[in-house]
Amino acid sequence: MQSQDSRRVTLVLCTSEGVLLGALPAFDVPGRWWPDVAPVVDGARKAFGVEVTVLRLLRTDGGRTGGSVDYLASTRSTPEVPLGSWPGDPLTAAPLRQPWARPGGPEADLAWALDVLAAHGTPPTGPARQQRTWNLSSLWRVPTAGGAVWLKAVPSFFAHEGALLSTLDADFLPRPLAVDGHRMLLPEVPGEDQYDAGPDLLARMVRMLVGLQAEQAARLPALLALGLPDWRAEPLAAMGADVMERTASELEPEAGGRVDALIAGLETRYVAVAECGVPDSLVHGDFHPGNWRGTAERLTLLDWGDSGVGAPLLDQAALEERLPQAHRHVVRAEWVRAWREHIPGSDPARAAQLLRPVAALRQAVIYRGFLDRIEPDEHVYHAGDPAVWLRRTAELC
């Protein structure tokens, strides 16, 4: 029987050359999060003796996690059971399909990674293991004698991540071993993901980020030249207006009116933010404890694909959305303390307050951008999110 924390998986198999083979019988795997495909790979091996690489999501039975989910997977093995049919053609071309979601795509990424490791004199000591795949990333872990490395591939709209990490000089950031367009090779970060970080650790995270942002405020042209998106007043207002125009029918009139008013007054609001003395700088864009990994002694801030240029206190609002109420006062106080150390006389508390609805509007823009740039089969991950965040924007206005 399927548990609350599991998925019932059907794998539709093809070859790496794109020849359709058929569907395996359904089987259960642990974990509800659809992009987490390591249990799917293990389950196919255990149940059917077949080695697979999961390419992409094909179909779900609704919801946002768990339930029944069908994937397309490539294989060079011969399954131990007869294969069935699957309705539709999972190999139909889609212009927005990511490279790693196509037959042969993961093999190309892995071949590049192996060439890099060979050039570094650290060839693999075992097979690469697929960890995650969805429209925003593909992750593989590769063991080597010098320690494991991670192959990460991202869509074109996140491709600035590798270039950014290669240019920043901070000891709490991962340094890529190599970057090639949409893919990069990263050293493994020892420790744990810090989803449950307590107040003291959260305060350290804030101090580290603010120190980097204070330093990067003088490098806006260089950051934009790397391809980072621009979330300052004029471009964000234009993007927000576009999202509102396309989403207005999903909102209550009062909520839509509040968001329209925010967008119309965004430049004036940004003038007030500037008067608080905190300059535009680098924004992480997805700043929450789970994107920190390591130990209490050494932390690393990961996942810079959502990064951009804009008001740095946008990151404070993003963090507080994910924190227990009891921790928020500690975070707010530390943000004020850290910015005033770098810019005496500044008013980061007022800047953060002015930016709370702007941060939610930015989230609506981000999710609309995902939906515009990923193939329709993957929309299930983000469908409805622009409206959710516009409603949140209205609440905060």
From TrEMBL:
<feature type="domain" description="Aminoglycoside phosphotransferase">
    <location>
        <begin position="173"/>
        <end position="349"/>
    </location>
</feature>
<dbReference type="Pfam" id="PF01636">
    <property type="entry name" value="APH"/>
</dbReference>
<dbReference type="InterPro" id="IPR011009">
    <property type="entry name" value="Kinase-like_dom_sf"/>
</dbReference>
<dbReference type="InterPro" id="IPR002575">
    <property type="entry name" value="Aminoglycoside_PTrfase"/>
</dbReference>
<protein>
    <submittedName>
        <fullName>Aminoglycoside phosphotransferase family protein</fullName>
    </submittedName>
</protein>
